[in-house]
Amino acid sequence: MKMRITLLKFSSESIHISRKYLLAVIILYLGYLNSNAQDVYENYREAWLKKSMEYLPELQVKTKVPLQMVRLIDDKESYQCVKAVKISEPPEFYQSGLKSNPDDLVLDFGEHLTGHVQFTIQSNVPAHAPVQLKIKFAEVPAEMKASFESYEGSLSKAWLQEEIVTLHTMPDTVLLPNRYAFRFIKFEILASAGDMDFFVSNVKCFSTTSAGADLFNETTLKDSEFQNILEISIKTLEECMQTVFEDGPKRDRRIWVGDLKLQALANYYSFGNFDLVKRGLYLYAATAAENGLVYGTLFEKPQPHPQKHFPIDYSLLYNTVLTDYYEASKEIGTLEDLWIVAKYQVLNILPNISEKGIFTPSPEWWYFIDWNNKLEKTAALHGIIIYSLTKTLELARLLKKEQELPQLQETIEKMRKAAREKYYDAEKMLFVSGPARQVSAASQVWMILSGTVSPEEGRNLFENLKKEKQVVWPVSPYLYHYVAEAMISCGMYEDAGNLIKDYWGGMAKKGADTFWEVYDPDNDFLSPYNSYMMNSYCHAWSCTPVYFLRKYNKELFP
Ligand code: RAM
Q1: What are the tens digits of pLDDT across the range 344-395?
Q2: Nearest C-alpha neighbor of 256 from the set 269, 245, 266
Q3: Sheet harboring 255-256: ordered strands across?
Q4: Residue to mutate (ligand 1; options 244, 250, 252, 309; most atoms within 8 A of CB)
Q5: Angle formed by the axes of helices 455-467 and 441-449, to 10°?
Q6: Residue of 139, 244, 255, 256 best suited for mutating to test ligand 1, as the one with most atoms within 8 Å of CB
Q7: CATH classification of 60-209 is 3.30.750.24, yes or no?
Q8: Region 231-249: what's the mean pLDDT?
Q9: Hey, what CATH topology would domain 45-57+211-556 get?
Q10: Residue ranges of domains in the chain
Protein backbone atom coordinates (compact mmCIF):
# COMPACT_ATOMS: atom_id res chain seq x y z
CA MET A 1 0.00 0.00 0.00
CA LYS A 2 2.80 2.30 1.04
CA MET A 3 4.61 1.42 -2.00
CA ARG A 4 1.55 2.15 -4.06
CA ILE A 5 1.10 5.60 -2.45
CA THR A 6 4.70 6.44 -3.12
CA LEU A 7 4.28 5.32 -6.57
CA LEU A 8 1.20 7.40 -6.93
CA LYS A 9 2.94 10.31 -5.40
CA PHE A 10 5.85 9.79 -7.62
CA SER A 11 3.64 9.39 -10.53
CA SER A 12 1.59 12.52 -9.79
CA GLU A 13 4.81 14.46 -9.34
CA SER A 14 6.18 13.11 -12.53
CA ILE A 15 2.93 14.03 -14.24
CA HIS A 16 3.32 17.44 -12.73
CA ILE A 17 6.88 17.69 -13.99
CA SER A 18 5.98 16.45 -17.39
CA ARG A 19 3.09 18.94 -17.56
CA LYS A 20 5.50 21.70 -16.79
CA TYR A 21 7.83 20.30 -19.35
CA LEU A 22 5.03 19.93 -21.82
CA LEU A 23 3.93 23.49 -21.26
CA ALA A 24 7.45 24.68 -21.88
CA VAL A 25 7.60 22.59 -25.02
CA ILE A 26 4.24 23.92 -26.18
CA ILE A 27 5.33 27.47 -25.50
CA LEU A 28 8.52 26.83 -27.38
CA TYR A 29 6.64 25.15 -30.19
CA LEU A 30 4.06 27.92 -30.34
CA GLY A 31 6.92 30.35 -30.34
CA TYR A 32 8.43 28.43 -33.21
CA LEU A 33 5.11 28.26 -35.03
CA ASN A 34 4.56 31.85 -34.33
CA SER A 35 8.00 32.67 -35.54
CA ASN A 36 7.07 30.84 -38.72
CA ALA A 37 3.84 32.74 -38.97
CA GLN A 38 5.62 35.88 -37.99
CA ASP A 39 6.43 38.63 -40.36
CA VAL A 40 9.95 37.90 -41.59
CA TYR A 41 10.43 41.57 -42.47
CA GLU A 42 9.01 42.96 -39.25
CA ASN A 43 12.17 44.86 -38.40
CA TYR A 44 12.72 46.25 -41.87
CA ARG A 45 9.43 47.45 -43.28
CA GLU A 46 9.39 50.87 -41.73
CA ALA A 47 12.86 51.73 -42.96
CA TRP A 48 12.05 50.40 -46.43
CA LEU A 49 8.90 52.46 -46.64
CA LYS A 50 10.82 55.51 -45.55
CA LYS A 51 13.39 54.93 -48.26
CA SER A 52 10.69 54.49 -50.86
CA MET A 53 9.38 57.93 -49.84
CA GLU A 54 12.84 59.48 -50.12
CA TYR A 55 12.87 58.37 -53.73
CA LEU A 56 9.41 59.73 -54.52
CA PRO A 57 10.01 61.87 -57.62
CA GLU A 58 8.61 65.26 -58.41
CA LEU A 59 6.56 65.18 -61.57
CA GLN A 60 7.55 67.51 -64.37
CA VAL A 61 4.53 69.22 -65.91
CA LYS A 62 4.26 70.42 -69.50
CA THR A 63 1.28 72.18 -71.05
CA LYS A 64 0.18 70.63 -74.32
CA VAL A 65 -2.52 71.72 -76.73
CA PRO A 66 -4.36 69.87 -79.50
CA LEU A 67 -2.73 70.05 -82.90
CA GLN A 68 -5.61 69.23 -85.18
CA MET A 69 -9.23 68.27 -85.58
CA VAL A 70 -9.74 64.84 -87.05
CA ARG A 71 -12.61 62.75 -88.29
CA LEU A 72 -12.49 59.01 -87.68
CA ILE A 73 -13.31 56.99 -90.72
CA ASP A 74 -13.59 53.26 -91.35
CA ASP A 75 -10.59 52.03 -93.31
CA LYS A 76 -9.68 48.38 -93.78
CA GLU A 77 -6.02 49.23 -94.37
CA SER A 78 -5.60 51.03 -91.06
CA TYR A 79 -4.85 49.61 -87.64
CA GLN A 80 -8.06 48.22 -86.18
CA CYS A 81 -9.79 49.45 -89.36
CA VAL A 82 -10.10 53.07 -88.24
CA LYS A 83 -8.22 56.03 -89.62
CA ALA A 84 -7.95 59.57 -88.24
CA VAL A 85 -8.16 62.14 -91.04
CA LYS A 86 -7.29 65.78 -90.51
CA ILE A 87 -10.25 68.15 -90.92
CA SER A 88 -8.99 71.45 -89.57
CA GLU A 89 -6.90 73.25 -87.02
CA PRO A 90 -8.28 73.50 -83.47
CA PRO A 91 -9.19 77.22 -83.67
CA GLU A 92 -11.88 76.35 -86.18
CA PHE A 93 -13.36 73.85 -83.79
CA TYR A 94 -13.34 76.47 -81.08
CA GLN A 95 -15.33 78.84 -83.26
CA SER A 96 -18.18 76.49 -84.06
CA GLY A 97 -20.78 75.46 -81.51
CA LEU A 98 -20.73 71.89 -80.23
CA LYS A 99 -24.22 71.37 -81.63
CA SER A 100 -23.04 72.04 -85.14
CA ASN A 101 -20.02 69.71 -84.83
CA PRO A 102 -20.72 66.27 -86.23
CA ASP A 103 -20.44 63.46 -83.69
CA ASP A 104 -17.23 62.06 -85.04
CA LEU A 105 -15.14 65.22 -84.77
CA VAL A 106 -12.28 64.71 -82.42
CA LEU A 107 -9.41 66.79 -81.09
CA ASP A 108 -6.02 65.23 -81.74
CA PHE A 109 -3.03 66.20 -79.60
CA GLY A 110 -0.67 64.57 -82.08
CA GLU A 111 1.07 62.48 -79.43
CA HIS A 112 0.28 60.28 -76.47
CA LEU A 113 -0.14 62.25 -73.24
CA THR A 114 -0.64 61.44 -69.60
CA GLY A 115 -2.06 64.20 -67.50
CA HIS A 116 -4.90 66.45 -66.39
CA VAL A 117 -7.18 68.23 -68.80
CA GLN A 118 -8.70 71.68 -68.68
CA PHE A 119 -10.98 73.60 -71.06
CA THR A 120 -13.11 76.73 -71.23
CA ILE A 121 -16.80 76.67 -72.06
CA GLN A 122 -19.06 79.50 -73.16
CA SER A 123 -22.65 79.63 -74.32
CA ASN A 124 -24.25 81.51 -77.23
CA VAL A 125 -26.86 83.09 -74.93
CA PRO A 126 -26.60 83.85 -71.21
CA ALA A 127 -26.87 80.47 -69.53
CA HIS A 128 -30.37 79.73 -68.24
CA ALA A 129 -29.92 75.98 -67.91
CA PRO A 130 -26.99 73.65 -67.23
CA VAL A 131 -25.31 71.59 -69.89
CA GLN A 132 -24.32 67.99 -69.47
CA LEU A 133 -21.25 66.94 -71.43
CA LYS A 134 -19.65 63.62 -72.12
CA ILE A 135 -15.90 63.92 -72.59
CA LYS A 136 -14.23 60.88 -73.99
CA PHE A 137 -10.50 60.09 -74.13
CA ALA A 138 -8.73 57.50 -76.24
CA GLU A 139 -5.20 56.39 -76.97
CA VAL A 140 -5.95 55.08 -80.47
CA PRO A 141 -8.53 55.96 -83.15
CA ALA A 142 -10.57 52.74 -82.97
CA GLU A 143 -10.93 53.08 -79.23
CA MET A 144 -12.36 56.56 -79.78
CA LYS A 145 -14.70 55.39 -82.51
CA ALA A 146 -16.01 52.43 -80.50
CA SER A 147 -19.05 52.84 -78.33
CA PHE A 148 -18.03 52.26 -74.72
CA GLU A 149 -21.68 51.32 -74.05
CA SER A 150 -21.09 48.15 -76.08
CA TYR A 151 -18.17 47.08 -73.85
CA GLU A 152 -18.39 43.47 -72.70
CA GLY A 153 -14.82 42.81 -71.62
CA SER A 154 -13.59 41.07 -68.51
CA LEU A 155 -12.16 44.07 -66.64
CA SER A 156 -14.13 46.90 -65.06
CA LYS A 157 -15.73 49.21 -67.62
CA ALA A 158 -14.69 52.08 -65.36
CA TRP A 159 -11.22 51.86 -66.90
CA LEU A 160 -12.61 53.25 -70.15
CA GLN A 161 -11.86 56.93 -70.02
CA GLU A 162 -15.01 58.95 -70.14
CA GLU A 163 -16.26 61.78 -67.94
CA ILE A 164 -19.81 63.08 -67.62
CA VAL A 165 -19.91 66.62 -66.24
CA THR A 166 -22.79 68.97 -65.59
CA LEU A 167 -21.88 72.64 -65.87
CA HIS A 168 -24.10 75.43 -64.60
CA THR A 169 -21.99 78.53 -65.05
CA MET A 170 -20.87 79.92 -68.36
CA PRO A 171 -18.31 81.03 -69.24
CA ASP A 172 -16.30 78.74 -67.05
CA THR A 173 -12.93 77.03 -66.98
CA VAL A 174 -13.16 73.41 -66.01
CA LEU A 175 -10.42 71.13 -64.75
CA LEU A 176 -11.51 67.52 -65.12
CA PRO A 177 -11.18 65.32 -62.03
CA ASN A 178 -8.97 62.47 -63.19
CA ARG A 179 -5.65 61.87 -64.86
CA TYR A 180 -6.08 60.61 -68.40
CA ALA A 181 -3.83 58.78 -70.87
CA PHE A 182 -4.80 59.72 -74.41
CA ARG A 183 -4.09 61.29 -77.72
CA PHE A 184 -7.68 61.99 -78.76
CA ILE A 185 -10.50 63.86 -76.96
CA LYS A 186 -14.13 64.20 -77.95
CA PHE A 187 -16.79 66.49 -76.47
CA GLU A 188 -20.41 65.52 -76.77
CA ILE A 189 -23.57 67.18 -75.43
CA LEU A 190 -25.80 64.80 -73.49
CA ALA A 191 -28.42 67.31 -72.34
CA SER A 192 -29.03 71.03 -72.72
CA ALA A 193 -31.70 73.66 -73.33
CA GLY A 194 -32.91 73.74 -76.96
CA ASP A 195 -31.90 77.31 -77.63
CA MET A 196 -28.42 77.03 -76.17
CA ASP A 197 -25.20 76.11 -77.97
CA PHE A 198 -21.75 75.78 -76.44
CA PHE A 199 -18.23 76.70 -77.44
CA VAL A 200 -15.32 74.78 -76.07
CA SER A 201 -11.91 76.43 -76.26
CA ASN A 202 -8.47 76.47 -74.68
CA VAL A 203 -8.33 72.72 -74.32
CA LYS A 204 -5.08 71.92 -72.55
CA CYS A 205 -3.37 68.95 -71.08
CA PHE A 206 -0.99 69.36 -68.17
CA SER A 207 1.05 66.32 -69.01
CA THR A 208 3.22 64.71 -66.36
CA THR A 209 6.23 62.44 -66.19
CA SER A 210 9.11 61.83 -63.82
CA ALA A 211 11.43 60.74 -66.61
CA GLY A 212 13.68 63.80 -67.00
CA ALA A 213 16.06 64.16 -69.89
CA ASP A 214 17.21 61.40 -72.20
CA LEU A 215 20.87 61.19 -71.24
CA PHE A 216 21.92 59.47 -74.45
CA ASN A 217 20.02 61.54 -76.97
CA GLU A 218 23.08 62.80 -78.81
CA THR A 219 23.38 59.49 -80.63
CA THR A 220 21.13 59.11 -83.63
CA LEU A 221 21.00 55.71 -85.25
CA LYS A 222 21.95 55.63 -88.92
CA ASP A 223 19.07 53.31 -89.72
CA SER A 224 15.98 55.55 -89.71
CA GLU A 225 13.60 52.68 -89.05
CA PHE A 226 15.51 51.75 -85.91
CA GLN A 227 15.73 55.40 -84.90
CA ASN A 228 11.94 55.70 -85.18
CA ILE A 229 11.42 52.55 -83.11
CA LEU A 230 13.88 53.85 -80.54
CA GLU A 231 12.03 57.16 -80.22
CA ILE A 232 8.67 55.46 -79.81
CA SER A 233 10.09 53.20 -77.13
CA ILE A 234 11.50 56.18 -75.20
CA LYS A 235 8.17 57.96 -75.42
CA THR A 236 6.44 54.82 -74.13
CA LEU A 237 8.76 54.67 -71.15
CA GLU A 238 8.47 58.40 -70.48
CA GLU A 239 4.69 58.20 -70.31
CA CYS A 240 4.80 55.26 -67.92
CA MET A 241 7.26 56.97 -65.57
CA GLN A 242 5.09 58.70 -63.03
CA THR A 243 5.50 58.47 -59.23
CA VAL A 244 6.34 54.83 -59.87
CA PHE A 245 7.10 52.90 -63.02
CA GLU A 246 3.48 52.31 -64.01
CA ASP A 247 2.59 49.42 -66.29
CA GLY A 248 0.33 51.64 -68.35
CA PRO A 249 -0.90 55.16 -67.64
CA LYS A 250 -4.39 54.25 -68.86
CA ARG A 251 -4.51 50.81 -67.29
CA ASP A 252 -3.48 49.40 -64.74
CA ARG A 253 -1.71 52.56 -63.48
CA ARG A 254 0.28 50.55 -60.95
CA ILE A 255 3.63 48.88 -60.65
CA TRP A 256 4.11 45.23 -61.64
CA VAL A 257 7.41 43.39 -61.11
CA GLY A 258 7.57 42.08 -64.69
CA ASP A 259 7.05 45.54 -66.13
CA LEU A 260 9.38 47.18 -63.60
CA LYS A 261 12.20 44.89 -64.68
CA LEU A 262 11.92 45.86 -68.33
CA GLN A 263 11.31 49.54 -67.65
CA ALA A 264 14.35 49.67 -65.43
CA LEU A 265 16.47 48.18 -68.23
CA ALA A 266 15.18 50.68 -70.79
CA ASN A 267 15.64 53.49 -68.26
CA TYR A 268 19.33 52.64 -67.77
CA TYR A 269 19.81 53.41 -71.48
CA SER A 270 17.72 56.57 -71.58
CA PHE A 271 16.70 58.59 -68.53
CA GLY A 272 19.09 56.94 -66.07
CA ASN A 273 16.62 57.54 -63.25
CA PHE A 274 18.00 55.20 -60.58
CA ASP A 275 15.84 56.68 -57.83
CA LEU A 276 12.64 55.52 -59.46
CA VAL A 277 14.02 51.99 -59.69
CA LYS A 278 14.97 52.09 -56.01
CA ARG A 279 11.54 53.42 -55.12
CA GLY A 280 9.99 50.41 -56.81
CA LEU A 281 12.36 47.95 -55.17
CA TYR A 282 11.78 49.33 -51.67
CA LEU A 283 8.01 49.53 -52.17
CA TYR A 284 7.92 45.86 -53.10
CA ALA A 285 9.99 44.96 -50.08
CA ALA A 286 7.87 47.05 -47.71
CA THR A 287 4.59 45.56 -48.95
CA ALA A 288 5.72 41.93 -49.31
CA ALA A 289 3.83 39.09 -47.63
CA GLU A 290 4.77 38.05 -44.10
CA ASN A 291 6.43 34.90 -45.45
CA GLY A 292 8.72 37.14 -47.47
CA LEU A 293 7.34 36.67 -50.99
CA VAL A 294 6.86 39.88 -52.91
CA TYR A 295 3.45 40.30 -54.48
CA GLY A 296 3.19 40.77 -58.22
CA THR A 297 1.74 44.24 -58.07
CA LEU A 298 1.17 47.13 -55.68
CA PHE A 299 -0.55 50.48 -55.41
CA GLU A 300 0.80 53.70 -53.96
CA LYS A 301 -2.43 55.18 -52.65
CA PRO A 302 -3.87 55.86 -50.14
CA GLN A 303 -0.78 54.22 -48.72
CA PRO A 304 1.44 51.62 -50.38
CA HIS A 305 -0.31 48.25 -50.38
CA PRO A 306 -0.15 45.16 -52.55
CA GLN A 307 -2.81 43.37 -54.53
CA LYS A 308 -2.56 40.09 -52.71
CA HIS A 309 -1.69 37.47 -55.25
CA PHE A 310 1.53 35.84 -56.32
CA PRO A 311 2.50 35.48 -59.96
CA ILE A 312 5.46 33.39 -58.87
CA ASP A 313 7.51 34.16 -61.99
CA TYR A 314 7.25 37.86 -61.10
CA SER A 315 8.14 37.29 -57.43
CA LEU A 316 11.33 35.52 -58.46
CA LEU A 317 12.16 38.05 -61.15
CA TYR A 318 12.34 40.65 -58.38
CA ASN A 319 15.80 39.27 -57.59
CA THR A 320 16.91 39.89 -61.13
CA VAL A 321 15.80 43.52 -60.97
CA LEU A 322 18.38 43.82 -58.19
CA THR A 323 21.18 42.34 -60.28
CA ASP A 324 20.24 44.42 -63.32
CA TYR A 325 20.24 47.49 -61.08
CA TYR A 326 23.73 46.71 -59.85
CA GLU A 327 25.02 46.10 -63.35
CA ALA A 328 23.80 49.55 -64.34
CA SER A 329 24.59 51.53 -61.18
CA LYS A 330 27.43 49.66 -59.46
CA GLU A 331 25.82 50.87 -56.22
CA ILE A 332 25.83 48.16 -53.59
CA GLY A 333 23.98 49.73 -50.62
CA THR A 334 20.55 48.99 -52.07
CA LEU A 335 21.51 45.36 -52.63
CA GLU A 336 22.75 45.05 -49.07
CA ASP A 337 19.46 46.46 -47.80
CA LEU A 338 17.36 44.18 -49.94
CA TRP A 339 19.39 40.98 -49.92
CA ILE A 340 17.03 39.52 -47.33
CA VAL A 341 14.15 39.95 -49.78
CA ALA A 342 16.05 38.13 -52.51
CA LYS A 343 16.85 35.39 -50.01
CA TYR A 344 13.22 34.92 -49.01
CA GLN A 345 12.08 34.65 -52.62
CA VAL A 346 14.36 31.64 -52.86
CA LEU A 347 13.54 30.18 -49.43
CA ASN A 348 9.84 30.28 -50.30
CA ILE A 349 10.19 28.23 -53.44
CA LEU A 350 12.88 25.74 -52.36
CA PRO A 351 10.29 23.34 -50.84
CA ASN A 352 8.63 23.23 -54.27
CA ILE A 353 11.74 21.91 -55.98
CA SER A 354 11.96 18.13 -55.77
CA GLU A 355 15.08 16.05 -55.19
CA LYS A 356 15.15 15.52 -58.92
CA GLY A 357 15.03 19.23 -59.61
CA ILE A 358 11.42 19.49 -60.74
CA PHE A 359 9.60 22.66 -59.79
CA THR A 360 5.96 22.23 -58.83
CA PRO A 361 4.25 25.53 -58.12
CA SER A 362 2.07 25.83 -55.10
CA PRO A 363 -1.70 26.04 -55.81
CA GLU A 364 -1.91 29.50 -54.26
CA TRP A 365 0.48 30.91 -56.85
CA TRP A 366 -0.12 31.64 -60.51
CA TYR A 367 2.34 32.47 -63.24
CA PHE A 368 2.20 34.81 -66.13
CA ILE A 369 4.88 34.30 -68.86
CA ASP A 370 2.73 35.77 -71.67
CA TRP A 371 -0.86 36.62 -72.60
CA ASN A 372 -1.15 33.90 -75.25
CA ASN A 373 -3.85 31.71 -73.74
CA LYS A 374 -2.76 28.75 -75.87
CA LEU A 375 0.61 28.71 -74.14
CA GLU A 376 1.50 25.71 -71.96
CA LYS A 377 3.72 27.35 -69.39
CA THR A 378 5.38 24.60 -67.35
CA ALA A 379 8.73 24.44 -69.16
CA ALA A 380 9.02 28.23 -69.46
CA LEU A 381 8.32 28.63 -65.77
CA HIS A 382 10.98 26.05 -64.96
CA GLY A 383 13.42 28.13 -67.02
CA ILE A 384 12.44 31.39 -65.32
CA ILE A 385 13.04 29.85 -61.91
CA ILE A 386 16.51 28.68 -62.93
CA TYR A 387 17.27 32.08 -64.46
CA SER A 388 16.22 33.86 -61.27
CA LEU A 389 18.12 31.46 -59.03
CA THR A 390 21.22 31.96 -61.15
CA LYS A 391 20.95 35.73 -60.81
CA THR A 392 20.38 35.32 -57.07
CA LEU A 393 23.56 33.28 -56.82
CA GLU A 394 25.44 36.10 -58.58
CA LEU A 395 23.95 38.50 -56.06
CA ALA A 396 24.90 36.28 -53.13
CA ARG A 397 28.47 36.05 -54.41
CA LEU A 398 28.69 39.77 -54.88
CA LEU A 399 27.51 40.37 -51.32
CA LYS A 400 29.51 37.41 -49.96
CA LYS A 401 26.32 35.84 -48.64
CA GLU A 402 26.53 32.44 -50.35
CA GLN A 403 26.52 30.70 -46.99
CA GLU A 404 23.00 32.02 -46.38
CA LEU A 405 21.70 30.00 -49.31
CA PRO A 406 24.14 27.07 -49.34
CA GLN A 407 21.88 24.91 -51.52
CA LEU A 408 21.61 27.38 -54.39
CA GLN A 409 24.36 26.17 -56.72
CA GLU A 410 23.29 22.55 -56.40
CA THR A 411 19.62 23.41 -56.92
CA ILE A 412 20.42 25.26 -60.13
CA GLU A 413 22.40 22.32 -61.45
CA LYS A 414 19.66 19.87 -60.48
CA MET A 415 17.06 21.99 -62.23
CA ARG A 416 19.13 22.35 -65.39
CA LYS A 417 19.61 18.60 -65.52
CA ALA A 418 15.89 18.05 -64.91
CA ALA A 419 15.06 20.54 -67.66
CA ARG A 420 17.01 18.53 -70.20
CA GLU A 421 15.59 15.22 -69.02
CA LYS A 422 11.98 16.26 -68.65
CA TYR A 423 11.40 18.99 -71.20
CA TYR A 424 13.80 18.27 -74.07
CA ASP A 425 12.39 16.31 -77.00
CA ALA A 426 15.31 14.60 -78.73
CA GLU A 427 13.32 13.99 -81.89
CA LYS A 428 12.15 17.53 -82.39
CA MET A 429 15.39 18.82 -80.87
CA LEU A 430 13.34 21.39 -79.02
CA PHE A 431 12.03 21.89 -75.51
CA VAL A 432 8.39 20.90 -75.12
CA SER A 433 5.86 21.59 -72.42
CA GLY A 434 2.86 19.81 -70.97
CA PRO A 435 1.20 16.48 -71.73
CA ALA A 436 0.61 17.50 -75.37
CA ARG A 437 4.34 18.25 -75.66
CA GLN A 438 3.66 21.73 -76.92
CA VAL A 439 6.40 23.60 -78.75
CA SER A 440 6.55 27.28 -77.95
CA ALA A 441 9.00 30.13 -78.27
CA ALA A 442 8.58 30.70 -74.53
CA SER A 443 10.00 27.28 -73.60
CA GLN A 444 13.11 27.68 -75.80
CA VAL A 445 13.74 31.24 -74.75
CA TRP A 446 13.62 30.61 -71.02
CA MET A 447 15.75 27.49 -71.33
CA ILE A 448 18.34 29.58 -73.17
CA LEU A 449 18.23 32.45 -70.69
CA SER A 450 18.42 30.03 -67.77
CA GLY A 451 21.77 28.76 -69.01
CA THR A 452 20.37 25.25 -69.42
CA VAL A 453 21.79 25.15 -72.95
CA SER A 454 24.94 26.61 -74.46
CA PRO A 455 24.77 29.52 -76.94
CA GLU A 456 25.39 27.09 -79.78
CA GLU A 457 22.56 24.83 -78.63
CA GLY A 458 20.43 27.95 -78.27
CA ARG A 459 21.06 28.86 -81.90
CA ASN A 460 20.00 25.35 -82.89
CA LEU A 461 16.80 25.72 -80.89
CA PHE A 462 15.93 28.85 -82.86
CA GLU A 463 16.79 27.06 -86.12
CA ASN A 464 14.64 24.08 -85.21
CA LEU A 465 11.81 26.36 -84.17
CA LYS A 466 11.72 27.73 -87.72
CA LYS A 467 11.28 24.19 -89.07
CA GLU A 468 8.50 23.30 -86.67
CA LYS A 469 4.97 23.69 -88.02
CA GLN A 470 3.06 24.22 -84.82
CA VAL A 471 4.76 26.78 -82.65
CA VAL A 472 3.04 28.90 -80.02
CA TRP A 473 4.44 32.40 -80.46
CA PRO A 474 4.18 35.27 -77.97
CA VAL A 475 1.47 37.87 -78.25
CA SER A 476 2.99 40.44 -75.93
CA PRO A 477 6.03 42.66 -76.31
CA TYR A 478 6.86 41.38 -72.81
CA LEU A 479 7.71 37.89 -74.01
CA TYR A 480 9.11 39.15 -77.31
CA HIS A 481 11.59 41.13 -75.24
CA TYR A 482 12.92 37.84 -73.88
CA VAL A 483 12.97 36.30 -77.37
CA ALA A 484 15.24 39.15 -78.50
CA GLU A 485 17.33 38.84 -75.33
CA ALA A 486 17.73 35.09 -75.86
CA MET A 487 18.80 35.65 -79.47
CA ILE A 488 21.38 38.18 -78.35
CA SER A 489 22.66 35.87 -75.64
CA CYS A 490 23.32 33.31 -78.39
CA GLY A 491 25.09 35.86 -80.56
CA MET A 492 22.18 36.08 -83.04
CA TYR A 493 22.37 39.85 -83.42
CA GLU A 494 20.99 40.01 -86.92
CA ASP A 495 17.95 37.96 -85.92
CA ALA A 496 17.38 40.13 -82.88
CA GLY A 497 17.59 43.25 -85.05
CA ASN A 498 15.13 41.75 -87.54
CA LEU A 499 12.77 40.85 -84.74
CA ILE A 500 12.83 44.41 -83.42
CA LYS A 501 12.11 45.71 -86.92
CA ASP A 502 9.35 43.19 -87.59
CA TYR A 503 7.59 43.26 -84.26
CA TRP A 504 8.04 46.72 -82.74
CA GLY A 505 8.52 48.16 -86.23
CA GLY A 506 5.24 46.46 -87.17
CA MET A 507 3.46 48.52 -84.52
CA ALA A 508 5.24 51.66 -85.73
CA LYS A 509 4.07 50.99 -89.30
CA LYS A 510 0.52 50.65 -88.03
CA GLY A 511 0.74 54.13 -86.53
CA ALA A 512 1.83 53.50 -82.93
CA ASP A 513 3.21 56.58 -81.24
CA THR A 514 3.71 54.54 -78.09
CA PHE A 515 4.03 50.75 -78.02
CA TRP A 516 1.09 48.55 -77.14
CA GLU A 517 0.37 46.03 -74.41
CA VAL A 518 -0.37 43.24 -76.87
CA TYR A 519 0.40 42.99 -80.54
CA ASP A 520 -0.38 40.14 -82.85
CA PRO A 521 0.53 41.14 -86.42
CA ASP A 522 -2.36 39.00 -87.67
CA ASN A 523 -5.03 40.18 -85.30
CA ASP A 524 -5.37 43.87 -84.45
CA PHE A 525 -8.24 43.17 -82.10
CA LEU A 526 -6.55 40.64 -79.86
CA SER A 527 -7.21 41.43 -76.23
CA PRO A 528 -6.50 39.54 -73.00
CA TYR A 529 -9.63 41.20 -71.63
CA ASN A 530 -12.02 40.31 -74.39
CA SER A 531 -12.19 43.87 -75.66
CA TYR A 532 -9.61 45.85 -77.60
CA MET A 533 -11.03 49.00 -75.96
CA MET A 534 -9.57 47.83 -72.66
CA ASN A 535 -6.05 47.20 -74.02
CA SER A 536 -3.39 49.62 -72.94
CA TYR A 537 -1.77 51.31 -75.94
CA CYS A 538 1.14 52.79 -74.05
CA HIS A 539 2.47 49.90 -72.12
CA ALA A 540 5.57 49.70 -69.99
CA TRP A 541 6.78 46.28 -70.98
CA SER A 542 6.86 47.33 -74.63
CA CYS A 543 9.51 49.99 -74.12
CA THR A 544 12.67 47.91 -74.43
CA PRO A 545 13.89 48.58 -78.00
CA VAL A 546 15.86 51.52 -76.61
CA TYR A 547 17.65 49.08 -74.30
CA PHE A 548 18.55 46.71 -77.13
CA LEU A 549 19.45 49.38 -79.65
CA ARG A 550 21.74 51.25 -77.28
CA LYS A 551 23.18 48.45 -75.14
CA TYR A 552 24.06 46.28 -78.13
CA ASN A 553 24.74 49.16 -80.46
CA LYS A 554 28.13 47.84 -81.60
CA GLU A 555 26.90 44.32 -82.19
CA LEU A 556 23.65 45.30 -83.87
CA PHE A 557 25.28 47.94 -86.06
CA PRO A 558 28.81 46.64 -86.69
C1 RAM B 1 -1.61 43.06 -66.89
C2 RAM B 1 -0.76 44.20 -67.20
C3 RAM B 1 0.64 44.17 -66.58
C4 RAM B 1 1.16 42.78 -66.45
C5 RAM B 1 0.18 41.86 -65.82
C6 RAM B 1 0.65 40.44 -65.68
O7 RAM B 1 -2.55 43.39 -65.93
O8 RAM B 1 -0.70 44.23 -68.56
O9 RAM B 1 1.50 44.91 -67.36
O10 RAM B 1 2.39 42.76 -65.82
O11 RAM B 1 -0.97 41.85 -66.60
Answers
A1: 999 999 999 999 999 999 999 999 999 999 999 999 999 999 999 999 999 9
A2: 245
A3: 255-256, 297-299, 305-307
A4: 252
A5: 180
A6: 256
A7: no
A8: 98
A9: Glycosyltransferase (1.50.10)
A10: 45-57+211-556, 60-209
